[in-house]
C-alpha cells in the first residue's frame, strides 16, 4: 500500500513539475505556427498549392489516357486546359519557382507522366496522333487543306519577323495537330519528330521570350523542308 502511495506521490510531483515547466515556456513558442503573416505571403502559398494540384491532376489524366479509361476526345481538351493552367500558374511564380524540376524535388512530387507532358507542352493526341476522328476521304481532304494552311501561316509569320514564343507556339501546335489528323503521316515521320522538338524547345521558354535570329532561320528552313516533303507524300 505504501508503495502505491509512493507512486501516486511521484506522479503528482511529475505532473506539477511539467505544469511548472509549461508555465515557464515563452508565450511566443506556444503560439500556432502560420505559413504566412501577410496577404502577399498567403497569395504565394495559394499559388504554389495551385501549381502542385495542377501537376498531380495532369499526372492522373495521363495515366487514365494510357489505361484507356478516357477517350481521346475527352482527354485532349482536358490536357490542353491543364497545360494552359500550368503555364499561367508558373508565370505567377517565376521568381520563386525557377524550374519545375526543383519545385517537384523540393515538395517530393513524383509525377513523371505529368513532367513529360509539361516538357513537351501538348497533349499526347497532338504529339503522336490518335484523335479518334473519322478518316473518311472527305475528312482527309479537309485535314490536308488545314495542314497546308498551317504551314503557310507559320512560315509567313516568321517572314513577318514574329519571334515571340506566344506568337509562334500556338501556330506550331495547330500545324502538328492538323498533321496528326492524317493517318498517312506516321508518328515517326521526320517532319513530326522535328516539329515536336521545336514545340518542346518553345515550351521550356517563357511566353515573352523570343527566338534568336539563328533559331528563326533554322525553324523557317525546317518548315520549308517539311512542307515540300508533305507535298511529295501526297503525290506518292
Automatic annotation (TrEMBL):
Its main location: other. It is found in: Endosome. SUPFAM superfamilies: Endosomal sorting complex assembly domain, VPS28 C-terminal domain-like. GO terms for biological process: protein transport to vacuole involved in ubiquitin-dependent protein catabolic process via the multivesicular body sorting pathway. The keyword S-adenosyl-L-methionine does not apply. Keywords: Endosome, Protein transport, Transport. Residues 139-235 form the VPS28 C-terminal domain. It comes from the Eukaryota. GO terms for molecular function: protein-containing complex binding. One of its GO terms (cellular component) is ESCRT I complex. Pfam families: VPS28. Residues 22-128 form the VPS28 N-terminal domain. Belongs to the VPS28 family. Component of the ESCRT-I complex (endosomal sorting complex required for transport I), a regulator of vesicular trafficking process. This is Vacuolar protein sorting-associated protein 28 homolog. The lineage of its organism: Eukaryota, Filasterea, Capsaspora.
Amino acid at each position: 500500500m505504501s508503495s502505491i502511495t509512493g507512486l501516486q506521490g511521484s506522479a503528482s510531483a511529475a505532473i506539477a513539475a511539467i505544469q511548472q515547466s509549461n508555465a515557464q515556456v515563452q508565450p511566443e513558442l506556444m503560439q500556432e505556427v502560420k505559413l504566412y503573416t501577410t496577404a502577399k505571403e498567403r497569395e504565394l502559398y495559394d499559388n504554389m498549392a495551385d501549381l502542385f494540384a495542377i501537376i498531380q491532376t495532369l499526372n492522373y489524366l495521363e495515366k487514365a489516357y494510357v489505361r484507356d479509361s478516357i477517350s481521346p476526345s475527352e482527354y485532349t481538351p482536358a490536357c490542353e486546359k491543364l497545360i494552359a493552367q500550368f503555364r499561367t500558374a508558373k508565370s505567377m511564380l517565376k521568381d520563386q519557382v525557377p524550374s519545375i524540376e526543383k519545385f517537384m524535388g523540393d515538395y517530393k512530387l513524383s509525377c513523371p507522366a505529368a513532367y513529360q507532358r509539361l516538357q513537351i507542352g501538348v497533349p499526347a493526341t497532338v504529339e503522336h496522333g490518335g484523335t479518334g476522328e473519322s478518316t473518311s476521304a472527305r475528312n482527309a481532304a479537309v485535314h490536308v487543306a488545314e495542314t497546308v494552311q498551317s504551314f503557310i501561316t507559320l512560315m509567313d509569320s516568321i517572314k513577318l519577323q514574329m519571334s515571340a514564343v506566344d506568337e509562334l507556339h500556338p501556330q506550331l501546335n495547330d500545324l502538328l495537330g492538323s498533321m496528326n489528323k492524317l493517318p498517312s503521316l506516321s508518328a515517326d515521320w521526320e517532319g513530326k519528330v522535328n516539329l515536336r522538338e521545336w514545340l518542346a524547345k518553345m515550351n521550356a521558354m517563357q511566353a515573352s521570350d523570343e527566338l534568336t535570329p539563328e533559331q528563326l532561320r533554322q525553324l523557317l528552313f525546317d518548315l520549308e523542308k517539311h512542307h515540300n516533303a508533305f507535298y511529295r507524300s501526297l503525290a506518292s
